UniProtKB/TrEMBL annotation:
It comes from Afifella marina DSM 2698. This is Putative spermidine/putrescine transport system permease protein. The keyword Iron does not apply. The chain crosses the membrane at residues 30-53, 204-226, 233-258, 288-307, 341-363, 383-406. PROSITE patterns: ABC_TM1 (PS50928). Residues 200-406 form the ABC transmembrane type-1 domain. Its main location: membrane. Belongs to the binding-protein-dependent transport system permease family. CysTW subfamily. It is a multi-pass membrane protein.
Length: 417
């Protein structure tokens, strides 16, 4: 009996070790199964977003090309005056001369040109004239100001200070139509340059309009499909998914043909005597909203249909039997139960619409381009990656805010239910 009692604890400890080993093995196998997905998300999602966020606040063009100038600018006591002394000008002359020989001055010229008008010509013109000097002058300060008087302006050195790096808020402030003045205070940009808040407003207005239209059109369709038999609903769902089988560029080009002055829509309107002549429906805001609504409508219908299929029809019958009018039963019984689908479809459509590029670029006019168009423009045409990254950061922040609102909304609905 005593021998059995001694064996029991050892067997228990052995069983616990075996269970713990089996649990560790199960967790390791589960981790290995999802490891490729984690690597994919990190490489193709997390890393690009981190790079975008970094590029919007990191400014090292001047620091890497003109290291002596950047160090001298950061060390100089700017309270003594807006234009620095000979020490800073001497460092500038050395960096200008070396960068001109290395053919790297264009990077700094481009960066200063973002901040001040004529920054590129200022840098390149000064570098060329310095290279022609036979011997170093007695005072680089007087010589550079004589070569290019803009080096004697406080605005020029304020731009150099803003570009000295390694961190900057220059690009982020631009996206909200603000800048730093000579003293470093944040002030609004001149009215003729205040465009980005207007672009953001236009982007959000178009995305919100498309979302509301998708909800107005998609809700009755999803409600109809949810009330049909499963076989019939699955058959009709093919029509909802049909746009996914057509390339986006083809669908957008088709809308250009359909909405043009002699297209199908104008012909039908004139045939029904609703208009006296063709109306302009393409290359304007109307064409953008119509085409985007068509493209994004399935993203609204699918979440709504998935939630509506889970709502038992008996709930509505019970509300009617208790004396509730049809609209009251629909509003107070049915809508709260499908609210997660409404929220999911709306946030999905809205976020996708925020970043749309091809459809507005092809169907819209110059005054209908969304923020994605300008991100592409600054990335490929002007190579202003800092501003492009800052605009992308604004969209990313808006997406996070919307997702937070969606999570709280869905959580509140579930709490009530």
């Amino acid at each position: 009996m005593a021998e059995k009692m001694l064996v029991g604890p050892r067997q228990t400890r052995s069983l616990k070790r075996d269970l713990a080993r089996a649990e560790r093995k199960r967790k390791r196998n589960a981790f290995l199964l999802v490891l490729p997905l984690i690597v994919f998300v990190v490489i193709f999602f997390v890393a690009p977003i981190a790079g975008m966020l970094e590029r919007s606040v990191v400014d090292t063009d001047l620091m890497e090309t003109w290291p002596k100038t950047a160090e001298a600018v950061r060390a100089y006591d700017w309270e003594k005056g807006a234009v620095p002394d000979e020490t800073v000008f001497s460092a500038l002359a050395q960096d200008l001369s070396r960068s001109y020989e290395d053919r790297t001055a264009a990077a700094v010229a481009r960066r200063l040109n973002y901040d001040i008008s004529g920054g590129r010509s200022l840098v390149m013109g000064t570098a060329r004239k310095i290279a022609r000097l036979d011997q170093p002058p007695t005072s680089w300060r007087d010589t550079l100001i004589e070569i290019e008087p803009d080096w004697g302006r406080a605005e020029t050195w304020a731009a150099v200070r803003r570009a000295a790096g390694p961190l900057t808020d220059f690009f982020l402030l631009q996206t909200i139509d603000h800048q730093r003045d000579i003293d470093g205070s944040i002030v609004p940009v001149p009215t003729e340059r205040a465009v980005y808040l207007q672009i953001y407003t236009r982007t959000f207005a178009i995305a919100l309009t498309v979302t509301l239209l998708c909800l107005m059109i998609g809700f009755p369709i999803a409600y109809l499909l949810a009330g049909l038999r499963e076989n019939t609903a699955n058959l009709l769902m093919i029509l909802v998914l049909l746009p996914f089988w057509t390339p986006l560029l083809v669908r957008t080009a088709a809308w250009v043909v359909v909405l043009q002055e002699h297209g199908l829509v104008n012909q039908m309107l004139q045939f029904l005597h609703l208009t006296d002549g063709p109306i302009r429906l393409v290359y304007n805001r109307s064409g953008v909203i119509i085409s985007m609504t068509h493209v994004l409508l399935p993203f609204m219908i699918l979440p709504l249909y998935a939630v509506m299929r889970t709502v038992p029809p008996s709930y509505m019958r019970a509300a009617r039997s208790l004396g509730a009018p049809p609209f009251t039963a629909f509003r107070r019984v049915y809508i709260p139960q499908v609210m997660p689908g409404i929220a999911a479809g709306s946030i999905l459509v809205f976020i996708i619409a925020l970043g749309y590029y091809i459809t507005p670029a092809l169907v819209g006019g110059a005054a209908d381009q969304m923020i994605s168009y300008y991100i592409a423009f600054y990335t490929t045409d002007t190579v202003n990656w800092g501003l492009a990254a800052a605009l992308g950061t604004g969209l990313f922040a808006a997406t996070l805010i919307l997702y937070t609102i969606y999570s709280r909304l869905v959580g509140g609905v579930r709490g009530v239910m």
